[in-house]
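Case study 2.
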Amino acid sequence: MFLGAADYFAYGLLRPSWLNTAGQLIGFLAYDIVLIVPFLIRLPTIPPENRIGLTIYTGVVIYSGLVAIYYLFLNKPTLLWS
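Prediction:
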């Protein structure tokens, strides 16, 4: 799975287009949706020495999801269905 994702990124570099970018954003959004709930559930019970790392990574996942949602569904020039 990871090799396929890496190949897709390489292909996007070789052939840049909105469709390649949209596919990668959809992949990031799926990844974010899968991870955000377990991260948020675990956050209150995490040991103090791991709290900063989980908080930062949770913020990155939230930010990544918001960027994907914006460019796929809200930004008119890059709407997924246009």
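The chain has one domain: 2-78.
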